[in-house]
Each structure stands twice: as C-alpha cells, then as structure tokens.
C-alpha cells in the first residue's frame, strides 16, 4: 500500500483533522483543513435555511467579540453565529474607547483572558495584532481582520460561495480587482483560493498593487479588460473613498472607467459569478445593475458568512468542550 | 604605568597581524620598554578597542561587554544634541571608561530648516554633525549644511532614506511585506537619498558619511562616487549583512529596523561591498528597546536592535567566511570610524592611546538577549557565534577584566 493511501482513523473524524488552536489566518492551513471548515459550514447553511430545531452546542460558553476597529456587518455576523449556537455573546467596542493603537494591547489581552472567555473574536487595525493576542490568552482566538494582513473567515465564506455556485473551487479562474495593497480580504482570498487550486488573477492600478504579489502564486494585471478574459468569478474589492482623491487614484470616476465592474464589462462574461465582500461603493467599483443582477452572489456571501462563522466557532471550541476525539 | 603585553596575536589595521609583544607607557603605545608589568595574552588576539559609530543611547555596560571603548552618539535622542551645553555634558559623561563622541544635530532641533551652531558644538566636543534617523527633505537646506560643515572640516552623517517615499513604511517592498500586510517602501528610497546627497557633497567638496548603506543600488552609487574622488564614507550594521527581510516573518519586531531589512540580493551586495572596500565602517546601531516598545503589533513597535554586545562576534563571521582579513575588519571597527570622527585612535601604531581589546576569536557562545545589559531586542537571539571579549583597556587602564 503506498504511503499516501494510509489514512489513520483520527485523520478523518477526530481533532487531528484540524489541529489548530486558533484561526489567525489562512496562512498555515493545509488545503484539506480549509476543505474541512467548508464542509462543516455546509451543514449550517442547510440548518439555517430550514430554520431547524436550534442546536445549542455552545450553550454556557462565553464568546467575546473584541473589535478594535469599527465594523457593522462582520460583528453582526459573528454575533448571530455565536447566538445561533447558544453561546453567551459579549461585544467589546474598543474602537471608541481609550484603547489607542497597540499601546495597551497586551494588557487588553490579559484582561480578556482573565474574563475566562471560551473564544475571542478579534478585529484590529494593525497587521499581526491578532497573533500577538493569541499568544497571550488561553482560549481560542479567531481573527476577524487584522490591518492589511488577513481576514480568514471572509476567504472561507468566499470559497464556500464559489464552491456551491460553481461546483468546485479548483480550476476556476478568479479575478480579484480593487485596492489590493490595503486589503486583508485580498490576502486571505489569495491564500485560500490558490490552496484550493483556483487560478487567481489580481487586478489593480500599480499604485495599489502589493510588491512581488506574483510570489503568492497569482498573476497580476493592471488592465481590467485583459484580466477579465475567460473569468469564472469576478471578485471586486472596496476602494476607500479617501484613496480616490489623488493619493492613489485621481478620482472615483476615473477608477470606474478603468476598473469598475460595469454592465458593459459583465456583458462579455454571461456565465461569470460576481462577488463583493461589502460594503460596496455602488457606481464606483461595481454598478448597481451588476450588484443586484442575476450573476451576483453578494447576498449569498453574507449568508455563507454566518454559516462559516458558526463552523469556525464550533470547531475551535471542540477541545474546550471535550468533544469526543478532540479532547 | 608601564605594561608589556606578551604572547599576543597583535592585529593592527595599519600594519597587519603579527605575533609578539606590545608596550604601553602612561596610556600610550610605545616601541619598547625595559621595565614593565607583564600581561600574558596566552596566544589570544590583541586589537584596537572598537569605536562604535552611531549608537542611539549610551549603554556603558553593553559597550564594556562588547569590547567598545568609544561611541559616536546619534543626535536624535532625548534631548536632541543641538545645544552646546548638552553636547558638552554628553561628551564628558562616559569618561574615563567610555569615551562618547557626540554627533551634533546639523539643523536646529533636527527640523531640517535652520543650521545648528555647528562650530560651537564642535568646540563643546562634537566630532561630526548629522541628521539623525531623519532625512532633510529640503535640498537647499542640505546643500547649506554640507557647505557649512565643509568650512569646519567635519563630516556630515546622514540617514539615507527619502522621507517622502518611506513615510509610514516599516518594511521594504517585497514578498515578506506583502504577505504580512505591512506598510512598505521601495528599496530605491535609499539610492534616491544617496544620489542627492552625493551630488550636493561633491559640489560643496564636503565630507559625507552615510551611516548605513544597505542596498545594491545605494552601494553602487557610493562605489562610483569614491572612484571619482568624492569625499564619502559609509557604514552598515551586522543585521543588514547577515539578515534579509524574511527575518520579519511572523511579525518578529526584533527585526524591525531603520532602515528596514532588505532583499537577499541586497544583502549579498552588502557583503561584496565589505569585501571590495566600498563600506568603511561596521557599527552596532545599538538601540536597546524594552518590551513596552517591542511587544506590539509590528508597525506600532519601535525600530532598532541591541547590538553592542554582539558587534564583535557577528563581525568575526565575515573573517570566518573569508570576506575580510582580520586586520581589515579592525579598520572597519576602529580605524575608519576614528578617521571619520577625526580621532587619533583606532590603530596600534606607536603614539596611539592604548585602547586595547583582548579577545578569543575561536571561543564559541550563544547569543542570549536575556543577558544583555539594557534590553534583549536582538534578531540574532539564540544564534551560536564565535569570538568572546576577554579584557579591555581604555588609555592603558583596564576597564574589563577576564
């Protein structure tokens, strides 16, 4: 029997299938580990749609959402995910408090740890901040976005959306377009989609293109129309308004001209799936007709977000809950 | 006091390596003595005490541990070295064990606008003027700084990063910065700054010392300028000789330096520039930072590393790898920094002050930041190295015993 055929039982159902204590990023995850999380999320999609009998598996557990940066939709998504599983969810809005930059980050981590939370969901404006906190606490930590670094649950929900709509991620030609330089969504998606064997093209003006991004296994384009040729999935990223006043891009209308996903552009791709992590600048990077059109999976992405976050909360607390095979 | 060092391998940047004796009379190296206390060096290496060009803080204990007898102090600490009274106090505070040579601020408050009182600061003890870890953005101001320093025959010590390009950046553009999502700037920011300062220095016939040149493009510019006679010297730290930007992986803030770590190709170019003489000075860049400044998200952490304790051992790796000879290494560590500062020191020639370092070039040890004097922020933590400081003399007086 070749070595590759030897699969110990623990690999299939026990904790060995996902040996990570935290989810700080897609970086470090094996392709089969990403697929495991997608499979787990898949069942929550069905349960959520069926309004099935509540599954309160996180009953009695405390989930703290520590958001050092403002967020509406991600925070809401994590809150709903936790509550749907029966967790006691507490939101800490550190963005408005006196916690500035990283000055008291370690102190905050120790405070959170002393509260004896079972899982902490963190968003922070500094790249690497979540990993720093994860090293300091005893419970599981879930990255809800750190600076420009990673936003792993977004990448997972995007991969799940693509898989459900296209049957598979592997072999899909995915074009990611927008502010790649400042985007954690782009980084996590590049890592997840290339790990799952998609063909990833990234497209941005050179002022918003990260250096040596091709070393991450993607093909960079500055011409959107060329990038779109043969695309199966078009993922648009938000461009912050303050970056379209001359700093990186001369104006929003010039951005739309060169990089906007307009109805005209999409007309050349009648089968392509349209995605956007939100919030959208309608009429800038994406036309309303496209965002609301038949090819758009944007609301489905939001739905997948809840399922993916339920799966992550469940999986990351299995050791603490002493689930059989995970303890 | 009369001293005779015997059984030493004597390393002099001017006269080379020889086995034999060295005589010291009243703190000065002499040709011979009839009657002297004998110090048996047991075959170990006797070299000039290290002159560390451009430390951020005065850390006497770390210097003693690292074989350093003189430091040139950067002007951009607290307070800024732009006032003659402060310069004079700093120049005196280390004596007699550690001589501190202030690099006075070239512009008032290091604001890059008005010339500082360079001449008065020099009479108060400054040995050069500098821009600190800043860039003078206004080329007109920089031209006048160089022209004025030319009249005083002092070097202008610069930091080679075009501030417009590096604003907000904590890393060099490249795969590592992209993967970590760190704000980064292109490596050409260094060559741009060097190109301007070289042209201005050439026009003013001024002495320019670029404290750290870390990129191939920057080193090429310095090499070409030296060839056409520009009075330029430059330095580097062991971090940029031994590490590339991949050392920042996992957000390791001990590898957060200024200028930031570069690509591997730049690191190799720096090694070549050591070997061919383009680089004149190796300095520690000593800048100890505690956990309150390093246990932070990478971009929020302070740049800098503790380097005084490891300067000798990390530099000896260049000798071990055949990049430089031992005597040339001590030109980089002692003679050349002395000459940039206009000091009578840094060699073992007759008449020089007896600033002496005895070390065991083969003794193995492991770098352990926990044991550093001020703070253990070294990206080399845990690295096995060779070369241990045994004893140290400043002006013939022993300041570190075995």
TrEMBL record, chain A:
<dbReference type="Pfam" id="PF02729">
    <property type="entry name" value="OTCace_N"/>
</dbReference>
<feature type="binding site">
    <location>
        <position position="184"/>
    </location>
    <ligand>
        <name>L-aspartate</name>
    </ligand>
</feature>
<feature type="domain" description="Aspartate/ornithine carbamoyltransferase Asp/Orn-binding">
    <location>
        <begin position="171"/>
        <end position="315"/>
    </location>
</feature>
<comment type="subunit">
    <text>Heterododecamer (2C3:3R2) of six catalytic PyrB chains organized as two trimers (C3), and six regulatory PyrI chains organized as three dimers (R2).</text>
</comment>
<keyword id="KW-0665">Pyrimidine biosynthesis</keyword>
<protein>
    <recommendedName>
        <fullName>Aspartate carbamoyltransferase</fullName>
        <ecNumber>2.1.3.2</ecNumber>
    </recommendedName>
</protein>
<comment type="function">
    <text>Reversibly catalyzes the transfer of the carbamoyl group from carbamoyl phosphate (CP) to the N(epsilon) atom of ornithine (ORN) to produce L-citrulline.</text>
</comment>
<feature type="domain" description="Aspartate/ornithine carbamoyltransferase carbamoyl-P binding">
    <location>
        <begin position="21"/>
        <end position="163"/>
    </location>
</feature>
<feature type="binding site">
    <location>
        <position position="101"/>
    </location>
    <ligand>
        <name>L-aspartate</name>
    </ligand>
</feature>
<dbReference type="InterPro" id="IPR006132">
    <property type="entry name" value="Asp/Orn_carbamoyltranf_P-bd"/>
</dbReference>
<feature type="binding site">
    <location>
        <position position="73"/>
    </location>
    <ligand>
        <name>carbamoyl phosphate</name>
    </ligand>
</feature>
<dbReference type="InterPro" id="IPR006130">
    <property type="entry name" value="Asp/Orn_carbamoylTrfase"/>
</dbReference>
<dbReference type="InterPro" id="IPR006131">
    <property type="entry name" value="Asp_carbamoyltransf_Asp/Orn-bd"/>
</dbReference>
<dbReference type="GO" id="GO:0006207">
    <property type="term" value="P:'de novo' pyrimidine nucleobase biosynthetic process"/>
</dbReference>
<feature type="binding site">
    <location>
        <position position="279"/>
    </location>
    <ligand>
        <name>carbamoyl phosphate</name>
    </ligand>
</feature>
<feature type="binding site">
    <location>
        <position position="74"/>
    </location>
    <ligand>
        <name>carbamoyl phosphate</name>
    </ligand>
</feature>
<feature type="binding site">
    <location>
        <position position="151"/>
    </location>
    <ligand>
        <name>carbamoyl phosphate</name>
    </ligand>
</feature>
<dbReference type="InterPro" id="IPR002082">
    <property type="entry name" value="Asp_carbamoyltransf"/>
</dbReference>
<dbReference type="GO" id="GO:0005829">
    <property type="term" value="C:cytosol"/>
</dbReference>
<dbReference type="GO" id="GO:0006520">
    <property type="term" value="P:amino acid metabolic process"/>
</dbReference>
<feature type="binding site">
    <location>
        <position position="123"/>
    </location>
    <ligand>
        <name>carbamoyl phosphate</name>
    </ligand>
</feature>
<dbReference type="Pfam" id="PF00185">
    <property type="entry name" value="OTCace"/>
</dbReference>
From TrEMBL, chain B:
<dbReference type="Pfam" id="PF12890">
    <property type="entry name" value="DHOase"/>
</dbReference>
<dbReference type="GO" id="GO:0005737">
    <property type="term" value="C:cytoplasm"/>
</dbReference>
<dbReference type="GO" id="GO:0006145">
    <property type="term" value="P:purine nucleobase catabolic process"/>
</dbReference>
<dbReference type="GO" id="GO:0004151">
    <property type="term" value="F:dihydroorotase activity"/>
</dbReference>
<dbReference type="InterPro" id="IPR032466">
    <property type="entry name" value="Metal_Hydrolase"/>
</dbReference>
<dbReference type="InterPro" id="IPR004722">
    <property type="entry name" value="DHOase"/>
</dbReference>
<dbReference type="GO" id="GO:0004038">
    <property type="term" value="F:allantoinase activity"/>
</dbReference>
<dbReference type="InterPro" id="IPR024403">
    <property type="entry name" value="DHOase_cat"/>
</dbReference>
<dbReference type="InterPro" id="IPR050138">
    <property type="entry name" value="DHOase/Allantoinase_Hydrolase"/>
</dbReference>
<dbReference type="GO" id="GO:0046872">
    <property type="term" value="F:metal ion binding"/>
</dbReference>
<keyword id="KW-0665">Pyrimidine biosynthesis</keyword>
<dbReference type="InterPro" id="IPR011059">
    <property type="entry name" value="Metal-dep_hydrolase_composite"/>
</dbReference>
<feature type="domain" description="Dihydroorotase catalytic">
    <location>
        <begin position="65"/>
        <end position="216"/>
    </location>
</feature>
<dbReference type="GO" id="GO:0006221">
    <property type="term" value="P:pyrimidine nucleotide biosynthetic process"/>
</dbReference>
<protein>
    <submittedName>
        <fullName>Dihydroorotase</fullName>
    </submittedName>
</protein>
């Amino acid at each position: 029997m070749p070595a590759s055929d030897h699969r110990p039982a623990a690999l299939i159902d026990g904790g060995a299938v996902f040996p990570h204590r935290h989810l700080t990023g897609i970086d470090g995850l094996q392709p089969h580990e990403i697929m495991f999380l997608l499979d787990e999320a898949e069942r929550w999609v069905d349960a959520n749609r069926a309004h099935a009998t509540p599954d309160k598996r996180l009953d009695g557990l405390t989930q703290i959402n520590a958001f050092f940066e403002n967020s509406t939709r991600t925070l809401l998504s994590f809150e709903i995910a936790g509550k749907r599983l029966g967790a006691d969810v507490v939101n800490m809005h550190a963005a408005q408090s006196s916690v500035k930059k990283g000055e008291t980050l370690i102190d905050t981590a120790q405070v959170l740890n002393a509260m004896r939370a079972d899982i902490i969901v963190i968003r922070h404006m500094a790249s690497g901040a979540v990993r720093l906190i994860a090293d300091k606490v005893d419970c599981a930590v879930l990255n809800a976005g750190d600076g420009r670094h990673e936003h792993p649950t977004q990448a997972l929900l995007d991969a799940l959306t693509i898989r459900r709509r296209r049957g598979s991620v592997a072999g899909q030609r995915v074009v990611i377009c927008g502010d790649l330089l400042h985007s954690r969504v782009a980084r996590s998606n590049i890592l997840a989609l290339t790990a799952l064997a998609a063909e990833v093209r990234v497209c941005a003006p050179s002022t918003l293109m990260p250096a040596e991004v091709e070393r991450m296994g993607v093909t960079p384009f500055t011409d959107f129309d060329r990038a779109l040729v043969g695309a199966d999935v078009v993922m648009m990223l938000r461009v912050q308004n303050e970056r379209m006043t001359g700093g990186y891009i001369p104006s929003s209308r010039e951005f739309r001209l060169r990089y906007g996903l307009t109805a005209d552009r999409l007309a050349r791709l009648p089968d392509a799936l349209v995605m956007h992590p939100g919030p959208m600048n309608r009429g800038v990077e994406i036309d309303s007709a496209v965002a609301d059109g038949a090819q758009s999976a944007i609301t489905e992405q939001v739905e997948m977000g809840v399922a993916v976050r339920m799966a992550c909360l469940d999986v990351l607390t299995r050791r603490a809950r002493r689930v059989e095979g995970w303890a | 006091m009369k001293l005779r060092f015997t059984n030493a391998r004597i390393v002099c940047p001017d006269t080379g390596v020889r086995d034999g004796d060295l005589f010291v009379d009243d703190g000065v190296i002499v040709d011979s003595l009839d009657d002297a206390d004998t110090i048996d060096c047991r075959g170990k290496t006797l070299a000039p005490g290290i002159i560390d060009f451009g430390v951020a803080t005065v850390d006497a204990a770390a210097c003693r541990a690292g074989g350093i007898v003189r430091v040139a102090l950067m002007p951009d600490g607290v307070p800024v070295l732009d006032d003659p009274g402060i310069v004079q106090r700093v120049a005196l505070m280390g004596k007699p064990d550690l001589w501190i040579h202030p690099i006075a601020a070239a512009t008032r408050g290091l604001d890059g606008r008005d010339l500082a009182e360079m001449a008065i600061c020099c009479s108060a003890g400054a040995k050069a003027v500098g821009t600190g870890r800043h860039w003078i953005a206004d080329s007109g101001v920089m031209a006048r700084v160089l022209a004025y320093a030319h009249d005083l025959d002092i070097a202008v010590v610069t930091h080679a990063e075009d501030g417009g390009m590096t604003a907000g950046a904590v890393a060099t553009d490249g795969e590592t910065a992209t993967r970590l999502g760190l704000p980064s700037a292109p490596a050409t920011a260094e060559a741009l700054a060097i190109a301007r300062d070289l042209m201005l220095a050439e026009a003013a016939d001024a002495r320019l010392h670029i404290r750290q040149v870390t990129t191939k493009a920057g080193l090429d510019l310095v090499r070409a300028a030296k060839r056409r006679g520009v009075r330029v010297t430059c330095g580097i730290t062991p971090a940029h000789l031994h590490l590339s930007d991949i050392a920042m992986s996992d957000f390791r803030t001990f590898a957060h330096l200024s200028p930031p770590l570069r690509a591997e190709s730049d690191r190799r170019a720096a090694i070549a520039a050591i070997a061919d003489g383009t680089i004149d000075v190796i300095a520690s860049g000593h800048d100890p930072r505690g956990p309150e400044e390093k246990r932070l998200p990478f971009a929020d952490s302070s740049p800098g590393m503790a380097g005084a304790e490891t300067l000798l051992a990390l530099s000896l790796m260049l000798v071990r790898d055949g990049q430089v000879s031992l005597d040339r290494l001590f030109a980089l560590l002692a003679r050349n920094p002395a000459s940039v500062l206009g000091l009578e020191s840094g060699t073992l020639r007759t008449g020089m002050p007896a600033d002496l370092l005895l070390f065991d070039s083969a003794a193995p040890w492991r770098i352990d930041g926990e044991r550093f004097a001020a703070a253990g922020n070294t990206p080399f933590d845990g690295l096995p190295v060779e070369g241990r400081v045994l004893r140290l003399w400043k002006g013939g007086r022993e300041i570190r015993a075995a």
